[in-house]
Each structure stands twice: as C-alpha cells, then as structure tokens.
Design goal:
Helix content of chain A: 25-40%
Low-confidence stretches of chain B: 36-49, 198-220
Largest sheet of chain A: 5 strands, antiparallel
Radius of gyration of chain B: 27 Å
Helix content of chain B: 25-40%
Distance between the termini of chain A: 34 Å
Oligomer: heterodimer
Shape of chain A: globular
Distance between the termini of chain B: 59 Å
Strand content of chain B: 15-25%
Radius of gyration of chain A: 23 Å
Number of helices of chain A: 19
Bound molecules: siroheme, flavin-adenine dinucleotide, flavin mononucleotide, iron/sulfur cluster
Structural class of chain B: alpha/beta
Number of helices of chain B: 21
Number of strands of chain B: 21
Chain lengths: 555, 573
Amino acid sequence: MAEKKLTAIEGIKVASDGLRGTIKESLLDEITGAIREDDKALIKFHGMYEQDDRDRREERAAKKLDRLYSFMIRLRLPGGLISAEKWIACNNIANENSTGVIKITTRETIQLHGLYKSKIKPTIQAFNTAHLDSIATCGDVNRNVTCASNPALSTVHEEVFAYADKISNLLMPKTKAYYQIWVDNEMLIDKKEEEDPLYQKHYLPRKFKIGIAIPPNNDSDVFINDIGLVAIVEKDKLIGFNIAIGGGLSATHGNAETYARLATVIGFTDTEEKTLRTIYEILTVQRDFGNRTDRKLARLKYTVDKLGVDKFKEEVEARIGFKLAPAKPFEFTERKDIYGWKKSNKGLWYYTVFVENGRVLDDEQVALKTALLEVAKLNKCNFMFTATQNIIISDVADKNKAAIEEVLRKFKIIEHTEGASLLRKNAIACVALPTCPLALAEAQRYMPEMISKMEPLLEKHKIADQELIVRMTGCPNGCGRSAASEIGFIGTHPGRYNLHIGGDNEGLRLNTKYKESLNEAELLAEMDSLFGLYNKERNKGETFGDFTIRKQLVK
Amino acid sequence: MLSEPKLKVLQDLIAGSSKEELLWINGYFNGVVANHQPSANGTAQASAVVTNKITIVYGTETGNSKALATQFAAKAKKSGINAKVFGSDQYRLTDLVKEEYFLVLMSTHGDGEAPDAAKKFYDHIVAGGFTLEKMKYSVLALGDTSYPLFCNVGENIDIEFDKMGAKRLVPIQKCDVEYEADATQWFDKVIQSLTQKTASAPTAAPVANGHAAPVSAKKVGKLAFTGNVLTNIDLNDRGSNKETYHIEIAAEGLEYQCGDSIGIVPENDSQLVTDIIAKTNIDGNKSLEYKKEKFTIYELLKRKINLIYLTERLVKQYADVTGHEIPVGRYDLLELVQKYPVKVPSQFEEILVGLNAISPRLYTLASSPKAHEGEVHIIVAKDVYTDSNGQQRKGLCSNYLSGLKVNGKQNFFIQPNKRFRLPADDKDIIMVGPGTGIAAFRSFLAERDATGATGRSWLFFGEQHFASDFLYQTEMQNWNETGVLTKINVAFSRDQKEKIYVQHRMLEHGESLYEWITGGASFYICGKKDPMSVDVENALLHIIEQYGKKTIEEAKKYLEQMKEEGRYEKDVY
Ligand code: SRM
Ligand SMILES: Cc1cc2nc3c(=O)[nH]c(=O)nc-3n(C[C@H](O)[C@H](O)[C@H](O)COP(=O)(O)OP(=O)(O)OC[C@H]3O[C@@H](n4cnc5c(N)ncnc54)[C@H](O)[C@@H]3O)c2cc1C
Ligand SMILES: Cc1cc2nc3c(=O)[nH]c(=O)nc-3n(C[C@H](O)[C@H](O)[C@H](O)COP(=O)(O)O)c2cc1C
Ligand code: SF4
C-alpha cells in the first residue's frame, strides 16, 4: 500500500513544542473570541474544546458579529471522585466563569461550558488552587479513567478504585506546558523533565480510553473502552484483572470502514506491576502501529483488527516480557446505578442522586445545584460521578447521614430521585446541541421530552417495571453510548434519528440499526408496536434486548 | 438731481454710445449700486480710514469659517491689505484690546453654542471687563435657520464689541447654510469701507451681460435627499445594555465625503400631537403661518415644531400669553397645556408660532462614497434617559430611527465637515472611535479599502462587552486580515472587575503610538464629547509628554502644532 499522507494534526503535534504551539499568542488576540487553527487541536490536550453557540450563528452574522466562541473544559477525575470542598470550588467557578451548569459526563467527570477566551486562565487557575486539573482529558492521549462507581456494591471497591488513579498518573503526558501556559507563565522548564518515552513527540494516533468494572454490575460500561479491566474477585479478594482491548462505539454515517466494537478479552494479570506494564505497552503498540493517516480509522479497535487480536497480543507480550495468563470467568448481570442509600461493608453510606443527563442546575422542578452545594457545605461527604451521569454522595459516616438526608429532603432531592421512572433513570443522552460542533440532532435538550412520551407506551404495554436501557446521541460518535443500549436513538438530521435495537442489558452485545432516520411520531409508532409485541410474546425474565434478537427483528 | 457738470458728462457719454454699450453701462451702474450703498447714501463711513493691516479671527467646527477666512485673506492681499488670520484658539486674548481693524468669522453649534475651539475666545468676550476704543470691527456669523438660536454666537459677539466701545465697519452679516453669497458680499463691503475705492471692475464684471448681478455661490449648503431604507439592524447581541442600529439608505445623486454627517429632522409622535390638539380644542386642519410658510396646525405639530423640553425662555412666553404662574424650568408642551390650559384656541396659535422648529439631529456617516455607491450608512444609538419627573424616556430621533421600516422613505440632508477628512493615501491614520464613534472610521476604512491607500491605519474601539457590543466586529476582522486595518486595539469596560477604556489601551501602546505620530500620522477622535474625547486627549498629551520627553506645556504645544497641520481632528458630540 502506497505511503499515505499523515493527518494535519500529526504535524501540529510534532511541531507544537510540547503542546505549546502559539496558544499564548492566540490568547492575546483581542478581536476574536477564537484561537488560531493549530492551537484548537493543541488545547484539547489541556482539556478544552473551542466551541460556538450554534443556535446563534445566523442571528449574529446578521449583526456583523463573529460567532459566539467559547470554550468547554473537562476535568481529570480518575474514577470520578471529588471532595466536598472541591465540589464547592467547581460550583463557584461555574457561576463565575461559565454558563453555570455543571455537566456530569459519561466518563465520570464534569465539564463546564461557555467560558469566553478571557475566562480560561482565571478558570484553570481557580481549579489549580482547588487542586483540580484538566490535563489530558481530551486529545490523543489516555483520557479520564472510569471505574465501577458504587463502593457499597463491592468489598474490593477501594482497592480497585485506586487503580484508576495509578493508571491515570502512569499515562500522563510529561510536558509542563499546561502549568506554564495557564497557571504560571514565568515558570522555568527543564526540557529534560519533559522528555516523554510513552507519547514522544507525536503522542497517540487518537484518543485512548480505559475503564474498570467490578462484576456483577457493568455500570462503567467497561467493554466500550480501548482497554477494559474486569476486576476478578475470589472470596472477597481482588486477585487481578481480565484485560480487554479494542472497544469503541463510534461509526460514521455512510462510512462502511467505521464500526462500533466491544473490547475483546485477551488475558489476565495478577499483580499491579504486571497490570500496569501491560496497559502501558498496549499504548506503545497502538502508538507504533496505529493509523496516522486517517483519524476515522485510528482508534485502537482498528489497529487490533488490522493486526488481528492474536498478533496484537503477541506484540504486547513481546514488549512486556511475559505471557498473559488465560482470562478468568466472570459474569455481569446488570449495568446501572443503584439509587438511594446503600451501606458499604466498611459501614459508610452512599446516596445515589438522579441527575437527568448529568446536568446539574436549578430548574423549575428541582434546585439540584443549590441542594448539592448545601450538602457539600456540611463537609461530611465526598462526591462521585457515575458513567450514567449521576452523583453519589459518598463516604457518609452513620452519625452524619441524618444531616445530609435532611438537606436532601428539604430540597426534594429524594422525591426527585425516587419519583423518576426506571426508564428515565437508566437513560443517557449526550450533550449535542447547541455546543457540540458534531451534532446532527438534539440529544440532552430533547431526551427528557422523548422519555415523557415513551413512559405512557411502557405503561400501556405493562412493561414499565423493566430495566430498559435507552440512550440518545446527536450523532453516531456515540458519546451517550447509544450503540451499547437496548434502544438507541442516533441523530441523523435535525429531528430525525436512526432507531437501534438488539443490544443487551448488561453491555456485552451492541445494538444494530433497525429503522433509519425517523421523526418523533415514527419513532413512537415503532416503539409502540415493538413494546406491544414484547409484552405479548416475551419469555419469562427475558429482557427487551434479548427478545428483539430471539425474534430476529435485527440480525 | 445731478449737478450740471455731472449731467453733461453723462449726456455726452450716452450720445456717443451704441445700444450695446448703453446696455453695458446700464448693467455696470447696477453693479456699482448693488455693491456700493455706503458711498451711495452720501454720508461717509463711520470712521473709515485707509489701512493696510487687518486681523481675521475665525471660530469653526466643521471648517466653513476657516475656509472663508483664508479665502478672504487672499482676496484682501489683492486689494493691498495684509490680513493676519488666526483660529480663535490660536489667538492671544490679551491682544484684543490692541486691535484696530478686526474681523470675526464665527459659526454657532450645539444649541446656540460656540465651536469647541472658540469657547475660550467667546467666553472671554462675554465675560467682558475691558474696553475696545481702538477697534473697528465686523462680524460674519455662520449658522442655520433650522436651529432655534440662529447665529447666536456671532450675534452676541457683535453686541458685546459694540458695548465695549468698538465701532462697526459694516453691520453683522448672518448666513444660513447657503452662506457663500452673503459672505462674499459682506467681505466686499468690508474691503470697500477700508479702501474707499469704488467697486473695482472685477466685482462688477459679472453684470457685463446686462443682467443684475447674482453673486455665484458654490453649492455647499444642505443637500437634501429622500432616500429608500435598505437595512435597519440592531448591532448589539442579546443581553446587551445597548441598542445600536446600523441603517442603510439609498438615494439618487448622493454627494458627500468621508467625515461628513447626515442630518435628519425627526417627526413628533402622532399620539402626542392628537393629545395636544384635543387638550387645546384647536382645529388641526386650520392653516397657520410659521416662519413665512403656511401649514395646517396638525402638520406644524407633527413635523415642524419642537414639542419636547421647551426652553425656559419659551416656557416664560407661554406663561405670559396664558397669564399662568409657571415655576421656572423646562417642560414638554403637553405638560403645559394640561397643567396650565390655554383660554382659547387663538391664544394657543399665538404660542405655536413662537415655538422653536425641531432641530436636525446629525449622524456621522459610516459609509464611503466609493465603497457604498448611492448609499449612506449611519449607526444610531438609541438614547434612553430619565426626565425631571424620574420617568424613563427615549430620545426623539434615535428612537424614531430605531423603528425605521425597510423600504420606507426617509428624508435627510448632508452636513459636510470640511475638517474631518482623510489625509493623503500614503499617510498613516490613528482612529479612536468607541461606541457610535466607530461610524467615521468604518467610513474611512471602507474608503481606504476601495482606493487601495498605502498609509497604515490603527483603530481603538471600545464598548461594554466583547460578546454583545463589538460593533462591526466581522468587518473589522476582515480589514485586519487584508491589512486595510494595520492595527486594532479594543477595550471592553465591563468584561472584568476594573473598567478599561480606549484611553487605557492607548497608554498601553503609548510608545508605538508616539512613533506613528512623530512619523506623520493623523489622529482622529469620533464619538461622545464627554467624557470620552476629553480623556482621550489627556491620554494623548500624556503619551507625547512621556515618550517625547516633553513638559506638559511642550506637549500641549505639540498638539496645537498637530491641529494646525490638520493632523488632530475631532468629530464629537
Ligand atoms: C461530554 C461527553 C458526552 C456526555 O454527554 O457525557 C462527550 C462529548 C463530546 N464528545 Fe464524546 N463525549 C463523551 C463521551 C464519549 C463516549 C462514551 C465513553 O467514552 O464512555 C464516546 C464513545 C466511546 C468511544 O470513544 O468510542 C465518545 C465518542 C466521541 C467521538 C468519536 C470517537 C471516535 O472513535 O471516532 C468524538 C469525535 C472525535 O473524537 O472525533 C467525540 C467528541 C466529543 C465532543 C468533544 C465534540 C468535539 O469533538 O468537538 C463532545 C463535546 C460536546 C460538548 O459540548 O460537551 N466523542 N465520547 C462525554 C465526555 C466523556 C469524558 O468525560 O471524557
Ligand atoms: C456632529 C454630530 C455627529 C453625531 N453622530 C452620531 C452618530 O453617529 N450616532 C449617534 O447615535 N448619534 C450621533 N450624534 C448624536 C445625535 O445627533 C443625537 O443627538 C442623538 O441621536 C440624540 O437625539 P434624540 O433626538 O434621539 O434625543 P433627544 O430627544 O434630542 O434627547 C437628547 C437628550 O436631551 C435631553 N432631553 C431631551 N428631552 C428631555 C426631557 N424632556 N427631560 C430631560 N432631558 C431631556 C436628554 O439628556 C437626552 O438624552 C451626533 C451628533 C452630532 C452633533
Ligand atoms: C451640531 C450642530 C449644531 C448646530 N447648531 C446651530 C445653532 O444652534 N444655531 C445655528 O445658527 N447654527 C447651528 N448649526 C449650523 C452651523 O453653524 C453651520 O453649519 C455653519 O456653517 C458651520 O460653520 P463651521 O464649519 O465654520 O463650524 C449647527 C451645526 C451643527 C453641525
Ligand atoms: S455523540 Fe455526537 S453529538 Fe453527541 S456529544 Fe458526541 S459528538 Fe456531540
């Protein structure tokens, strides 16, 4: 195959002098809210995306105003844990510098939107004083490491959870550009310290994601990651991890070469040392074999399929210097957040709060943002963010439970959480419009309404008690993991979605396209008949996903 | 009437002349008479002694008076008179008492105020406290009859000089916008009174064709147009505290230059008019003469007369006519007719004819004749204020313009500003235009874009918020890209805790600004007079002082020098 040209971004990375580029100059440019083209690619590595309010483009153009550029910033929170003080800091920074809405993401961290260029430095500096950073939460590096969320569900949670942090630190880029540009311009850098044996000068060909799950709950959707770690527990002891590679959900409409893929388990490691080494070298193989000429085919999943799983595994074993043990058996029986109070074996309490689509704000229904701030001010808990975009009020001692519960009651958070239907509580929607430049249709702004229209159908067909997993994304990139749901709405055009069915409930089988580009009425009609069928012809205990496969509604 | 000898000469002349010659002579005498009343009425001029030295002082805002002053000085030379010309801000006030032959060319601005550069001069005279025995003088007052206080400043100077014992060479001449004819005539009279020579052939020459002599005047007055509104958009984005409208109007035969303004006479609110008519039971269809023109009373109220915020003088008039006790102050007409009713409609008519005409509102042109052929563009800030009753009110004209409908008709006239002009294409320009002040510079940049001027350009713009108030942002970005706009610095006062304005940005870039200036750049300010233009001027002085290593006095001199070279110009309001 003839040498194809490297993508533009490859050149930008190499020439960037440790991800610095001309970011400083871009910030000084007074007459635009945007930054220079190349710098747009570079700030991602610092955890930010340039965006503009797509709702406002036309109107502003008529007013001879440039697009309303602003920036989205994403924090690095391995496993999604944050202290009460840090939550308060985020709350205040959001009010000061962003839209004020705190967005919990599907990778267990938070995003702030709508920061004007002039607000970026103040924001990052404020985060820095709160001991928070956004390093490597975007860009062609390892992203925020996700982990099974609820400590009350497993005796080994604390031990497993610690891996999220270790992995995150192991795979951090070495450049100090982040601190030099955003925090302290004057700091002197010893370039030797910046030499990066892992990422070198060209980093990875593409983003890289790692997640950890503890069976039987697959709440972190472990197999959608480039590397998925399945904790293997025997007699309440963590004995190691099954390692799976090559997950990724994105496909591009009309590009047959792209596809969603769940990670393939390639073996087992029993020690921390081995586990971390293996992870590290999987990245180096991807670094050296990954596609750098076409970003659409650059994710690990394509490298794995290009080399073949076995060949890829050999390459990794050659680099780690030992053979991976055969994978251990494991079973996932569910994939969801467990709402309400739960007690861990260490005697600490955990309350999972329902946050629709991860958007923390005060609205007509509930003053969630204020409530959480009040809870944080008690300073008697931590906060954890789940992969289903919810919040767990964590590590609450017996003696403090009442105080926290009082605040939750006062602000009707408990009603709000218990009151929401199963369907709503298991649903996910991505951000999409107006900020996401890739959105083809609405998602988080529309999903709540869609759910409200589905609920009567579930009632009608007496299946409202099912743990049905419905997910919506504004495009096939699958940020809301729509490809890994029992019912997936995947945006094609404004107001139109592909309807996907056939995914299982536990996250071990992807769904497939059932109907193309339907509007709301058509979607509801399709679901009405599907639910009717399911209600009449399902086997005892059969999930909707499995039912649609048995009935061969999709291949 | 003629003495014998004179009659004889005349009869011989007639006898020996052809018909054509007679016609010429006839015309010649007309000319002589027209230009020579003084000696025609026999009595010698006040104390006209021949002199070869006169002083001309002009006070100008938009350059007309200055143009005349220099033109007249040249003319004086031809008649062997040496004229020293001063701008009123250059003139040493202490010299006034020493003056012998003194001419003042002075326009009126604001509502009856002296041009900015003439304020000191004018105040000094009004303050008085000295005498002018030696002085023989005359005043040429420039003005515009559409303003209530027509030629107010010239008039007052004429009166004050008289009080101080100065003698009039010739009476004051008040000029309307078509000023050139009257001005030339006035100056001819001045010359004659100074030289006792009869009208020289050149002045009479035009009558050679036998017709009475109309003094040809270049058309410089109000060019009136009726245009078609093409666009009207609020440039401020949602969430802004401001409303600033970009308005484009197309019209036939437009003639203007960058730096000019257009004038618009707003109409009164129809509701207000009907309220006043109702309250006074006056007949709206009855026709009434106002300033020598006939209108129906409705027309008058709707289109001609200012009904808002009447001056104390007019309020007093109202009180006198109606016999009411009215506390001193400014009121709206409606307020007056409500609180202090008129007895009978006829009484109200008497009041009406005494009221002021609606004065034109000016808007600096934001367009360039070369770039926007056949169109004028303006940018209008909706004016919102609180009146004495603490009520929120909208400015009459800006509010009216904000609601201008596309495809509607709009009348306007061109108000030239001879002083506010682009320099030669290869010269650098520095433009400070926050808020609506951007208008003049959008015009300048569009023009330089169209002509491919080579001089560099540097803009300072300011407003409240970057996101919502960056007027013409995309156009400025494009001009910056293509190099038409070499440099641009912006100040958004409310995007951070401390307030930042254009003058702060100037100071930040002081060194390079000073380089531009010493390199020959012209410096322009457009926008609000207070406090903006004052703060900007102080910043400029500070920069000249600091980077020119000058004392503040030297800095001021330097700025004066720039003014004289026409390198420091303001269009402020
Ligand atoms: C915030 C979040 C969705 C949410 O509602 O929670 C999100 C939001 C965006 N994702 Fe995502 N992705 C988010 C999880 C995901 C996931 C799900 C996951 O990782 O669990 C996926 C599918 C899994 C995968 O990676 O295959 C995902 C696959 C993508 C892709 C497709 C990548 C690919 O392989 O082609 C893009 C587009 C790209 O990278 O070119 C993308 C790009 C984007 C961008 C940054 C759009 C862009 O590139 O300019 C979106 C920003 C929208 C906004 O205004 O905030 N996002 N994105 C999630 C943030 C996770 C985090 O904290 O890091
Ligand atoms: C040379 C020049 C250029 C100009 N260029 C521009 C330009 O480019 N863009 C622009 O927007 N403007 C410009 N202006 C200003 C413009 O001409 C008008 O002055 C402005 O639009 C306000 O006029 P208005 O009729 O809306 O307000 P008016 O009704 O005339 O009111 C103006 C002010 O008078 C006072 N006032 C009026 N009535 C009352 C009352 N009843 N009680 C108390 N106070 C009262 C208030 O302070 C009010 O703000 C320029 C002015 C000049 C002289
Ligand atoms: C803003 C403005 C206000 C004016 N106000 C008056 C006025 O109150 N009375 C008047 O007689 N003329 C007024 N005029 C008309 C000017 O005096 C007239 O245009 C004159 O020719 C200007 O001469 P200059 O260029 O020497 O300043 C005004 C003109 C402008 C631009
Ligand atoms: S799935 Fe598409 S639309 Fe939704 S956030 Fe991701 S990129 Fe944007």
